Amino acid sequence: MSRSLVTVATIRDAKRLNRRVTMLTCYDATFAKLFSRAGVDLLLVGDSLGMAVQGHSTTLPVTVEDILYHTRAVVRGRGLVGPHVVADMPFMSYQASPTDALRNAGRLLQDGGAESVKLEGGAEMAPTVERLVSAGIPVMGHIGLTPQSVHKFGGYKVQGRTESDADRLVRDAKALEDAGAYAIVLETIPAALGARITSAVSVPTIGIGAGASCDGQVLVGYDLLGLDPDFKPRFVKRQGNLGMEVAGAVERFVAEVRSGSFPDDAHSYGA
Ligand code: KIV
Questions:
Q1: Model-wide pTM > 0.85
Q2: Ligand 1 contact, 62 CB (< 6 A)
Q3: Which band of pLDDT confidence, cut at 50, 70 and 90, is reported for residue 168?
Q4: pLDDT of residue 3
Q5: Which one, of 250, 218, 217, 245, lies nearest residue 229 by Cα?
Q6: Quick one: which of 113, 143, 203, 246 has the most CB atoms within 10 Å?
Q7: Ligand 1 mutation pick, 23, 48, 51, 236, max ligand atoms within 8 A of CB
Q8: Is residue 177 one of the residues assigned to a domain?
Q9: What is the DSSP string of the chain?
Q10: Ligand 1 near 66 CB (within 6 A)
Q11: Cα 46 to middle of ligand 1, angstroms
Q12: How far does Cα 168 stand from its chain's mean position?
């Protein structure tokens, strides 16, 4: 990983250069520093923080203020060089009008320090994407299983399984590309459709449960690390088991304090 700032130009070029893009969700300064050091290309301050951090059952309660708070922390942890920071636009911060979207996206860059925003939706969001891009705000699209529409879908279900739904998602991706999106997240769709959309657009696709042909992959950072031992959807490949490690470390701390073996001399100050 070069020690410069990853830009939207770097991400766009990745597709042309056949270099796979990596993105992780990140909500705080400590993980931002660690993920940055490990060489990930993009940090997404995802509205999944509503579930992962705040304990809600959907992303719908997340507010612009919440995303701003976490984006500032991530930007501080990342520092001046390293991954590109994308701030997610939460539910109802962009759907009502392009003017709302512009005001809120502007805050995420100006007050939050993000370098781009992500929003959910396909062709219906193209005018909004165009408006933000023309104001100088880079936009990442997001189609497929868009969690803010969970109640419309009736749950977190694989999308694009029928021919007409698949065709619509291809049209959505092209509309987002035409509107100026610099990359598009494809979430929970059949791998073959991930491949079809990826070859239909010239901007990078970043898949989560969308197969191996996408131009990049994104996961929720906590899922990658196995922080929640009880949550493991099919598309997550854990690279760690931090949840169990945390529990073990805390159990050892509790046992040592109770037995009196901590703190010992090595962890105490002399006169
Ligand atoms: O908020 C989020 O975590 C996301 C990813 C699933 C792409 O949008």
A1: yes
A2: no
A3: very high
A4: 76
A5: 245
A6: 143
A7: 48
A8: yes
A9: --SSB--HHHHHHHHHTT--EEEEE--SHHHHHHHHHTT-SEEEE-TTHHHHTT--SSSTT--HHHHHHHHHHHHHHH-SSBSEEEEEPPTTSSSS-HHHHHHHHHHHHHTT--SEEE--BSGGGHHHHHHHHHTT--EEEEEES-GGGHHHHTSS-----SHHHHHHHHHHHHHHHHHT-SEEEEES--HHHHHHHHHH-SSPEEEESS-TTSSEEEE-HHHHHT-STT---TT---S--HHHHHHHHHHHHHHHHHHT-SS-GGGS---
A10: no
A11: 5
A12: 23
128 within domain boundaries: yes
- Asked if residue 250 belongs to a domain, the reply is no
Task: State mean pLDDT over 225-243.
Answer: 95
Q: How far is the CA of 186 from the centre of ligand 1 (A)?
A: 10
**Catalytic machinery residues:** 187
Q: Does 117 sit in the ligand 1 pocket, CB within 6 Å?
A: no
Name the domain count of the chain. Answer: 1
Distance 269 CA to ligand 1 centre (A): 46
Q: Are 118 and 134 in contact (CB under 8 A)?
A: no
pLDDT class for 1, splitting at 50, 70, 90?
Answer: very low
Report the CATH number at residue 44: 3.20.20.60
Ligand 1 and 188: CB distance under 6 A: no
How does residue 109 score in pLDDT terms, banded at 50, 70 and 90? very high
Question: Per residue in 82-94, pLDDT tens?
Answer: 999 999 999 999 9
Q: Which domain holds residue 85?
A: 8-225
